[in-house]
Amino acid sequence: MSDSADLVCFRCKLVLTIGMFWRSAEPRRLFLPGRLCQDDIPITQAVWKFLAEHVYHPVELLGEGDEDRWITINRDFTSIDDDAVGNPTLAQYIGHWPGRALAQHPRPMAEAVALAVLPQGSRALRQQSLAPADIGVVRALYRSTRWPEDPSDEVDDAALTERLAKLRTGLDALRDAARSGVPDLARPMEECVRILAPAHEFTHAILNQDRDAYAPPALFDAERALGLIHDWAWSVGPDE
Ligand SMILES: [Zn+2]
Questions:
Q1: Could you tell me the distance, in angstroms and rounded to a whole number, from the CA of residue 103 to the centre of ligand 1?
Q2: Nearest alpha carbon to residue 167 among 136, 204, 137
Q3: What is the pTM of this model?
Q4: CA–centroid distance, residue 56 to ligand 1 (Å)
Q5: How far is the CA of 107 from the centre of ligand 1 (A)?
Q6: CA 57 / ligand 1 centre spacing (Å)
């Protein structure tokens, strides 16, 4: 039976798959497609880089069987060398990864939303027969939110204005969802509105005070929080 080994930093929300292995193999060796990890220079460099970067951080080495830990790892975590938007390739992680600082910057709103929304689960809501109006609210929430751009994307003034407008659209849809008559829908959304309250105060001028060539960390945090809500809305009421 195969298994995989992953290094995870829970502070920086970073996952590095360091190889696969056969549980019954003795001695155990890690491999990646077509190669043994111990002989592979890029993955070896990535492991040392990861270890050096995360001294004193809550780092764990997980296998697939660590289900109680994986359940706490959500889409806001950066998984090195998977194809999802915003994640670096192995070569970028070892070398130049423009989004590194932003991706590893703390995201208190996204973290709080993950705690408020994800455990509420969508199963209970799916099992209820939501009224058409409530299904409409969930779908509007899904359509009005999205997963944000790559943290490596450079953001100029025009892009900042555009992203701020999209954020406000998402926040408005969130408020509408919090007014739903279905408590299992309204409660987690009310909590998300409360968590995202600081994002209502964002202005171009405020966000410009704390940024380099990339997205302001506070904006990226709010966008990721809405991205998690976007995923949650899809699981509750998939778009037709
Ligand atoms: Zn770390």
A1: 11
A2: 204
A3: 0.90
A4: 8
A5: 13
A6: 5
**Which single residue is written with the structure tokens 């590893």?**
104
Q: Which domains, from first to last, does the chain contain? A: 2-97 (no CATH), 108-236 (1.20.1250)
Task: Give distance in angstroms: CA of 194 to centre of ligand 1.
Answer: 28
Q: What is the mean pLDDT of each run of 10 residues along the chain (240 residues)?
A: 96 95 92 92 97 97 96 93 88 95 94 84 64 84 93 95 96 92 85 96 91 94 96 75
Tokens representing 199 are 């994002």
Which residues touch 55 (CB under 8 Å, ≥6 apart)? none
Q: How far is the CA of 52 from the centre of ligand 1 (A)?
A: 10
